[in-house]
Amino acid sequence: MAELLQYRIDMEPQSRWRIVTVDPAAKTGLLHLQEAGDFHARRGYYTKRRGLDSYLLKITLSGRGVLEYGGQRIPQEPGCFFWIDCQLPQYYGTDPEAGCWRVMWVHFFGPTAQAYYQAFLTASQGSPAGRLPDRAPAVQAIERLLALYDRTGSSLSADIRASAILTGLLAECVSALTAESVPAIPQVMRDVRDCLLADYAGPLTLDSLSARFSVSKYHLQRSFKRYFGQSPGEYLTAVRMDNAKRLLRTTDLPVGEVAFAVGYETASHFISVFRAREHLTPQKYRKLWASG
């Protein structure tokens, strides 16, 4: 997609805008800041763009703006934020009827940026926008980023600290949506989880769990994944792998006995699952971690 950029900067004098020159090591290895700002935008402010290797997170503090993205037109009011992939066509600007729009924002990129963005889309059910709770620390995080580079300038040290702040900011935005979208976990789902944690070595199946907790297999599968992010089978595999690693590192049990101890009937099945998850065999894992 060819790059496109049209914009108008129409801001009050108290607006702040920081463009960052990132150290090459941080640019290739870390989640890193590209730009940040605190804009007191007037009526004429807008940006129309596509084809930029960047993600943009923008939080509305006052006034009103509008985002056009992915075929949607989404008003931006105080407490709202949007998070978009700037490779895709986008338009955002001050809502003319409001005449003003104060926003704090960050452009960022890096090796893990896409993974955080996908986590956001999962939490938002595909929407590019969300709402932050009152007194959320996200705004303070952007303020800290602006202050960091104002105080120290660009350096690898600043980039490392900025990466940590950015990580917290993105996690905060994802968590805000997760807290909104997932209600309190029903007791029966907690009981199923506790069973998987305690009885992982037993012959647990979806059928046995369904019978034990008097819930249909369909409801169990769907609800467990809703509340814990994994199916019961995926969760059980993760618990078994955690315990297998503990035994491989803290005992001299043969691999076949480790397999049986964590719920696998055959060593070959255990080795196959372990290799698929860890990209190495249990024996190799044991040797790599033997020195503690």
Summarize the structure.
The chain is of the alpha+beta class and 292 residues long. It contains eleven helices and eleven strands.
Q: What is the element string, with H for helices and E for strands?
A: EEHEEEEEEEEHEHHHHHHHHH
Biggest sheet overview: 6 strands, antiparallel
How widely separated are the two ends?
Answer: 49 Å
Radius of gyration (CA) equals 24 Å
User: Helix/strand-derived class?
Assistant: alpha+beta
Number of DSSP E strands: 11
Strand order of the largest sheet: 2-3-10-5-8-11
Question: Mean pLDDT, nearest integer?
Answer: 93
- Approximate strand percentage: 15-25%
Low-confidence stretches: none
Give the proportion of residues in helices.
40-55%
What tags apply to this protein structure?
single chain; 292 residues; alpha+beta; six-stranded antiparallel β-sheet; five-stranded antiparallel β-sheet; 11 strands
Give an account of the 3D structure.
The model has no long low-confidence stretch (mean pLDDT 93). It is built from 11 helices and 11 strands. With 292 residues, it is α+β, with helices and mostly antiparallel strands. It has a 6-stranded antiparallel sheet with strand order 2-3-10-5-8-11, with helices on one face. It has a 5-stranded antiparallel sheet with strand order 1-4-9-6-7, with no helix packed on it. The N and C termini lie far apart (49 Å). The longest helix is centred in the middle third of the chain and has 26 residues, at 156-181. The protein has helices at 24-29, 113-123, 138-152, 156-181, 187-198, 206-212, 217-228, 232-250, 255-261, 267-278, 282-288, and strands spanning 4-8, 16-19, 32-42, 46-50, 55-63, 65-69, 72-76, 80-85, 90-94, 100-109, 129-131. Helix 2 runs parallel beside helix 4 (156-181), helix 5 runs parallel beside helix 8 and helix 9 packs across helix 10 (267-278). Helices cover 46% and strands 23% of the residues.
